[in-house]
Every structure is written in structure tokens, then in C-alpha cells.
């Protein structure tokens, strides 16, 4: 996401403010050399926050101005500018009903380097001191919030806490109130009002709970796993998977916790490492209809095209799902009970194929030695387990498959046709690429249906480290760094088109790379960068003596024309300032850059181009005939 935001800054005048903790190395890397400032709480800010809270404190505080002043003074000193400590210290006073007890608590406020952990421990002791029903609710809230695989909404968490194992559905009368969930956790959790996400108050809260989980919530993953499996076993889901998109979406809307349970139950079973959780999972896997309901939610496409809910395997076995989650003990039980190690679903995928995709080495190690496992099984897209492992970056599985005594085809092509190396390069899997190119039997110049090589794909997606590794293999020579695909586009052209400045900078300096190469449309890398608004790439390419900045493509358009046509003002300004760029050059339709900008409604570009011509432009000249441009005509301008 940060990479894309920084790319946006290349396209236009975009200001971007980021805040983070100072200890994150990636932040320093992304924003190196950028203006920065340290933000810390000022004493007056802390005092203001505390002052605003006094009215809601116990009566002995709210009715006593001098005690309020003491509370504020002592918390300010103990918190040392940390708002989180301010919040926790204040929370510790809310159950103090007498002045003496308030003063005693203030004298015992944690201070110094261990203050935060001490404050958290005090909160947990207070929670534990509740009556059993309240402690149980708080414990389960903290269990879910601190151990789930993604943040939960308040609705999801309420339903999670309302699940009663063995019951056929949710009893709506058993749903806890959000205010109680928050209140009983003594300030450790908050609700984001915009997203409705309920979460921990601070990242240090998560770190603290991770350290003490064996003390306070030792069976967290087991408890969550059992709830997920209990939820997925509700009578609601015995009707199997849904037959159409509306039915599927209605099911998700009716069942708030279904998405989380279907996608994550197996992860919690695996992390629980518990026999009871395993047995519950086996019982669930035996119910084909309920399993199919869960699989549909887990494997459905995130793209909502018509019929998307049916684009999942209609026939899928327990072994496939077990392999997806990496449940080795359960897989051993299934195989011992007669499940087929090489059973395929109706996408022709086997348990080994899924284990390779999801990166579960334990399952691959379990299945690969078996004689009834086909290591080179091919699914409906022509992909093998090696192809899936390579494309998902699982280098340990790639090595295991390649080194297996029965062997697998290192250059197996799918229906695209792409090889494992092509997939690894395309996805930026550095470790896998390194592993594959070190082998003498891997085709480093394999081409897919569009003629793209692994290097071309790496450049296309901006994977600089992969580009460097593949380019280094050119010394053999085994890789053509300037190879052309079926559209005569080179790796440099693709990198420029997609705005990958680092890749462009590396490739243009490689021996044998033509920086001004033309594709089938006579477009150069500079034209592609100009058309797509990548100003830094444009500047880099234009600075080279071997690049013609005024060259025209097959339609007669120049880089300036493309930039104007697409409304990229910064690039237009940059190219206009060059002596070797002609502002009034026309394409085969007789259109100038100005007329393209006018037709597509880019008034700022029109103004700049017109001013650059140093004379008035008639209205007629900036109103080309209909049907020429990419959009509606700009309103008439007096220039």
C-alpha cells in the first residue's frame, strides 16, 4: 500500500502524511530523506484530557476540587507523557469510592520503565476480581480479540460469545451487550465507531497479552476453534452450499460470524495443538453438507462477478480441506481411515496441490513419500504442486519436490503456458527464483502464450530483486535482458509502463538493453511512462542521450501528446521545457497535444500548452470533431 501511495506522488501533486511508531524499520526505509517530526504528548494536553474526565469519576473525586487536582498531578507525573498510561491509571481509580482509597492508589501508581506492564497486570487483577460471570465474559472477550486472525466487528464478537456448544443455533437472548464487553475489560479494549471494529486499546496491550496468555488465557486457540466448529455445525448450514449469489449473500448477512469461522477454524485447530480440538474437527469434516457450506465461504472469489459463489469446488473431500489448513494429525487419521491421498476435487486438485499452495510443509512431507501420491498431478489449469509452491513463494516445498527421488518436472507448463520459474518471477518470490535459477535443468527463458519470459514478468510487476537475479543469469548467457514478447514489448517497456522506477533504472544500464526500443505499435518505454503518468520514470528515460523524446508511434503521437491526452500535467510541463520536443507536432489525425488535452477536458493542461505556444488559440482549434478523443469536449476556453 505504501509503495502504491508513493507512486501516486509521482503522478501528481499529492501530499501524504504518515504517522507510526519510531521503531518500525520499514517506515524509515520508505520515508528516508523526507521531512519528519517527533510527536509526543505535552503536559498541558494530558492535564486537559484528565480534566475532561473528572465529572465521570466516583463522587468522592468529582465533588472534591482539591482531590481532582491531586489526581491530575499524580497521574501526569506517573504517565510521563504517555496517553495510554494516563488512560490506564485513570481507569484504576474508577472503582475507588473513598478519598483514602484514592490517595492510596495514587501513591502506588506504577512508574518508570516497567510502568506499562505493571499497569496492565493491575488491570488484569482487577478484572479477575470480578464475580465469575463478569470475569468469564471479560476473559472470553480478551481471548477473541487477542487471538483472532483478523479484527472483528462488534456484531461478530457478540455472536462468537453467544455460541453454546451442542446447540443447533444462536439464542438471540444470549447475546452480550457491547457496553458490558467494553466495561468489564477495564479500558483494555475500544470500539472504532466508523468501522465498528472492536480491538485492543494499544499495540502494547497485544504484546502484554501474548506474554501472559499462558497465565490468563492458556486455551485461547482451543476455545476459539471449538466455537468456530460449533458455529459451522449449526442446523442453518445443513442445506449444503448456496446455489446462487443472492442466496449466498443472504446467508452471510444472516450469519454474522460465518465468514470468520469458515475461513479460520482450521488455523485455530492447528494452533491449539489439542486432542479435543482435533476430535471436534474430525466430527465436522464427516458432515459433507456443512463442510461444503464452509468451503464455499472460504474459497469464494473476492471479485463479485455473476455466478461467483459457484466458482468453488462442488466436490471437495475432508483431505483437501485438511491440507489447506496444514492439519497433519488429522490428515494422518483420515488416511488411516481410508481417505485417498491423491483424491481430486472437481477442479482436479489434490491434497498435495493445496498443501503446496498454502505452504504446509508438514502435509507435503506426509504425502510425498506415499506411492499413491502423484507428485506431478495436473489440475484443470494445468498447474502442478510445484507450480503452486513456486508461485506462492514456498521455497522449502519447492526444494522438497525437486529433490524427491521420484522427481518432478522443473519446467512443467500450465495452460497459459507458464513454468514454475515464470510464476515465481511474476509473484516476486525471491527465494524460489534463487533456488530455481541455480539449477541447470530450469529453462530461464521460457515463454508463455504472450511470449513473456520470467524476466519480463518480474519487470512488469516491479520485483527488482528478481530482475537483478535473472539479469545476472544473462552473463551465462541464459537470459536475454532485452527479449521481446509477442507485442514486441521488452522488460524495460513493461517496467516503464507500470511505473517501476527502480527496475527501469537498473535495466537501462544493462548491456544489450535498447532504451528506445519500439513495440508493435512503435511505442517506446518513454511513451508508455508518459501515457501512464509516471513522471520520475519519464525524467530518467528522457535524461538519456539514446532516447528520442520527440519520437512518434504508429499513430503519430509523441510522448508529449500521450501525456496531454491522459492529463498528466507534470509530465507535460517537463517535456515542454525541453528543446527537443515540438509542441505543435501533429499525429496522423492532425491532432496536436493541445487538442487532445482539450477534447478530454484537461483544462490545466490546455492552459499550460496554450501558454507555451505564446499566442492566442482560436476556440475552433481546441474543439476537434466529435469521436476523436477519450471523453467529452472541454468547455470553450478563452486563452
Summarize the structure.
With 639 residues, this protein is mostly helical. It has helices at 2-11, 25-30, 43-53, 59-62, 65-79, 83-91, 99-107, 115-128, 132-147, 154-162, 178-184, 203-216, 220-232, 245-254, 258-272, 275-285, 288-299, 318-325, 328-336, 351-358, 361-367, 385-391, 395-403, 420-427, 430-437, 454-460, 464-472, 491-497, 501-508, 525-531, 535-542, 559-566, 569-576, 593-599, 603-613; strands spanning 152-153, 189-191, 197-200. It is 51% helix and 1% strand.
Account of the 3D structure:
Residues 615-627 and 631-639 have low confidence and may be disordered. Strands 1-3-2 form a three-stranded antiparallel β-sheet. Among the domains are: 1-37, no CATH class; 43-112; 515-622, Alpha Horseshoe (Serine Threonine Protein Phosphatase 5, Tetratricopeptide repeat), CATH 1.25.40.20. The protein has helices at 2-11, 25-30, 43-53, 59-62, 65-79, 83-91, 99-107, 115-128, 132-147, 154-162, 178-184, 203-216, 220-232, 245-254, 258-272, 275-285, 288-299, 318-325, 328-336, 351-358, 361-367, 385-391, 395-403, 420-427, 430-437, 454-460, 464-472, 491-497, 501-508, 525-531, 535-542, 559-566, 569-576, 593-599, 603-613, and strands at residues 152-153, 189-191, 197-200. The protein is globular and about 85 Å long. It is built from 35 helices and three strands. With 639 residues, the chain is an all-alpha fold.
Amino acid at each position: 500500500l505504501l509503495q502504491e501511495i508513493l507512486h501516486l506522488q509521482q503522478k501528481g501533486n499529492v501530499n501524504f502524511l504518515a504517522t507510526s511508531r519510531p521503531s518500525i524499520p520499514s517506515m524509515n526505509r520508505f520515508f528516508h530523506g523526507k521531512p519528519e517530526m517527533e510527536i509526543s504528548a505535552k503536559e498541558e494536553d494530558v492535564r486537559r484530557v484528565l480534566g475532561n474526565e473528572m465529572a465521570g469519576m466516583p463522587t468522592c473525586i468529582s465533588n472534591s476540587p482539591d482531590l481532582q487536582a491531586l489526581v491530575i498531578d499524580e497521574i501526569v507525573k506517573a504517565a510521563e507523557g504517555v496517553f495510554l498510561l494516563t488512560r490506564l491509571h485513570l481507569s484504576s481509580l474508577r472503582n475507588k469510592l473513598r478519598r483514602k482509597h484514592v490517595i492510596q492508589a495514587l501513591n502506588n501508581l506504577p512508574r518508570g520503565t516497567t510502568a506499562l506492564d505493571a499497569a496492565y497486570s493491575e488491570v488484569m487483577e482487577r478484572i479477575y476480581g470480578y464475580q465469575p460471570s463478569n470475569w468469564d465474559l471479560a476473559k472470553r472477550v480478551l481471548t477473541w480479540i487477542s487471538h483472532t486472525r483478523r479484527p472483528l466487528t462488534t456484531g461478530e464478537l457478540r455472536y462468537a460469545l453467544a455460541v453454546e456448544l451442542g446447540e443447533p443455533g444462536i439464542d438471540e437472548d444470549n447475546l452480550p451487550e457491547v457496553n458490558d464487553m467494553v466495561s468489564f475489560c477495564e479500558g483494555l479494549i475500544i470500539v472504532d465507531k466508523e468501522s465498528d471494529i472492536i480491538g485492543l486499546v494499544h499495540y502494547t496491550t497485544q504484546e502484554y497479552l501474548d506474554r501472559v496468555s499462558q497465565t490468563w488465557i492458556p486455551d485461547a486457540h482451543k476455545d476459539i476453534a471449538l466455537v468456530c466448529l460449533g458455529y459451522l455445525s449449526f442446523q442453518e448450514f445443513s442445506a449444503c452450499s448456496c446455489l446462487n449469489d443472492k442466496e449466498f449473500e443472504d446467508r452471510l448477512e444472516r450469519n454474522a460470524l460465518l465468514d470468520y469461522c469458515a475461513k479460520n477454524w482450521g488455523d485455530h485447530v492447528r494452533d491449539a495443538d489439542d486432542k479435543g480440538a482435533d476430535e471436534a474437527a474430525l466430527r465436522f469434516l464427516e458432515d459433507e453438507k456443512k463442510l461444503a457450506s464452509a468451503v464455499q465461504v472460504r474459497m469464494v472469489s473476492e471479485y463479485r462477478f455473476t455466478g461467483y459463489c459457484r466458482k468453488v469446488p462442488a466436490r471437495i473431500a475432508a483431505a483437501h480441506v485438511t491440507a489447506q489448513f496444514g492439519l497433519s494429525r488429522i490428515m494422518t487419521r483420515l488416511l488411516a481411515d481410508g481417505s485417498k491421498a491423491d483424491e481430486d476435487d472437481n477442479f482436479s486438485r489434490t491434497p498435495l496441490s493445496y498443501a503446496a499452495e498454502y505452504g504446509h510443509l508438514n502435509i507435503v512431507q506426509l504425502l510425498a513419500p506415499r506411492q499413491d501420491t502423484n507428485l506431478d498431478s495436473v489440475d484443470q489449469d494445468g498447474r502442478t504442486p510445484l507450480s503452486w509452491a513456486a508461485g506462492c513463494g514456498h521455497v522449502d516445498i519447492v526444494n522438497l519436490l525437486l529433490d524427491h527421488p521420484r522427481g518432478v518436472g522443473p519446467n512443467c507448463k500450465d495452460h497459459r503456458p507458464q513454468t514454475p520459474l515464470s510464476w515465481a518471477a511474476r509473484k516476486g518470490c525471491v527465494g524460489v527464483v534463487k533456488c530455481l535459477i541455480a539449477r541447470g535443468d530450469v529453462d530461464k527463458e521460457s515463454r508463455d502464450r504472450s511470449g513473456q519470459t520470467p524476466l519480463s514478468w518480474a519487470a512488469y510487476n516491479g520485483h527488482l530483486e528478481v530482475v537483478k537475479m535473472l539479469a545476472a543469469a544473462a552473463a551465462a548467457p541464459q537470459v536475454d535482458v532485452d527479449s521481446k514478447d509477442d507485442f514486441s514489448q521488452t522488460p524495460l517497456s513493461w517496467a516503464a509502463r507500470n511505473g517501476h522506477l527502480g527496475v527501469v533504472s537498473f535495466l537501462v544500464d544493462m548491456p544489450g538493453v535498447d532504451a528506445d526500443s519500439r513495440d508493435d505499435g512503435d511505442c517506446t518505454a518513454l511513451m508508455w511512462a508518459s501515457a501512464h503518468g509516471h513522471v520520475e520514470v519519464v525524467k530518467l528515460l528522457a535524461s538519456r542521450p539514446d532516447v528520442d523524446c520527440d519520437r512518434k508511434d504508429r499513430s503519430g503521437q509523441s510522448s508529449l501528446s500521450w501525456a496531454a491526452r491522459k492529463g498528466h500535467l507534470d509530465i507535460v510541463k517537463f517535456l515542454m521545457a525541453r528543446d527537443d520536443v515540438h509542441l505543435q507536432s501533429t499525429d496522423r489525425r492532425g491532432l496536436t497535444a493541445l487538442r487532445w488535452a482539450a477534447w478530454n477536458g484537461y483544462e490545466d493542461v490546455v492552459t499550460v500548452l496554450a501558454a507555451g505556444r505564446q499566442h492566442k488559440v482560436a476556440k475552433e482549434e481546441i474543439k476537434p470533431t466529435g469521436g476523436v478523443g477519450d471523453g467529452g469536449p472541454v468547455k470553450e476556453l478563452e486563452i
